[in-house]
Write a structure and sequence with these properties.
This protein is an alpha+beta fold. The protein contains ten helices and eleven strands. It folds into two domains: about 15-145, P-loop containing nucleotide triphosphate hydrolases (Rossmann fold, 3-Layer(aba) Sandwich); about 175-240, 2-Layer Sandwich (Alpha-Beta Plaits). The longest helix has 16 residues, at about 115-130.
Length: about 250
């Protein structure tokens, strides 16, 4: 698609930009906090862009600091915060106007597992409150955790779209059986017409019957090492886009 119109909240983005932005929150990929202000001041000053009365703004700031677990850091200068704490503060800032639509660009990039899961929990809570969330991410586990509907893009084009479960089932199946690459194994799989793919030094078999395939490989193909695991969105992504490194 190279043309068309875009509406947000039923409003044309070319005509009603101010009204749309008033109802939106944005979490950019970079932590663009103001280093001259404390955690508390970053939120309070940002609230002025939305004409929030001071008393109401202070109330919201306190609520948001509690929401992202930064109450004890309220008087800390932002430069001294860790990357995970900065991401939580950027999320809090995006929520100061109580947006109906939240847009996030790589919200958990560079975060440790604990910080990432905390961010996921907060976003899931916002979803339950009725906030629409649009995010971009390279973490396919993140997409599985957060998205009701997603699109996989490659070179600027949409390849597929749907729910994580539907995409996995359609393109992979429920499971993947893995074994080492071996000419004898490949010949055996070909004889028995098993659907497989050779990826580097590994053979992957996409199936809905992992136990049956595993038993078959161990008995008919004389294998001693076979691994079965659940299929993931990452498997879908790699199957559709390939495994070559991109610039």
């Amino acid at each position: 698609m190279t043309s068309g119109t875009l509406e947000v909240f039923g409003l044309d983005v070319n005509v009603h930009q101010r009204e749309i932005k008033f109802k939106m929150g944005v979490v950019p990929q970079e932590n663009n906090l103001d280093p001259d202000f404390t955690v508390y001041e970053n939120l309070l000053i940002f609230s002025r862009y939305f004409d929030i009365p001071e008393d109401e703004a202070k109330k919201r700031v306190d609520e948001l600091l509690e929401f992202v677990h930064l109450e004890e850091r309220r008087d800390t200068m932002t430069d001294s915060l860790s990357g995970g704490l900065k991401r939580r503060l950027v999320l809090a800032r995006a929520l100061i106007n109580r947006p109906r639509l939240l847009i996030l660009d790589e919200p958990t990039v560079g975060l440790d597992p604990q910080s990432r899961h905390l961010m996921w929990d907060k976003l899931k809570g916002l979803k339950k409150q009725g906030v629409t969330i649009v995010l971009t991410t390279h973490y396919l586990e993140e997409a599985s955790q957060l998205c009701d509907r997603l699109v996989i893009m490659d070179n600027g084009k949409i390849l597929v779209e749907g729910s994580p479960t539907d995409l996995i089932q359609e393109h992979i199946g429920s499971a993947i059986v893995e074994t080492d690459k071996d000419p004898k194994v490949i010949s055996c799989l070909d004889v028995h017409q098993v659907n497989y793919e050779v990826l580097g030094e590994e053979i992957q078999i996409y199936t809905d019957k992992p136990q049956e395939i595993t038993d078959h490989l161990l008995s008919e193909c004389k294998l001693t090492s076979v691994t079965a695991r659940a299929a993931t969105l990452e498997d879908v992504f790699l199957k559709l886009t390939g495994r070559k490194l991109r610039e």
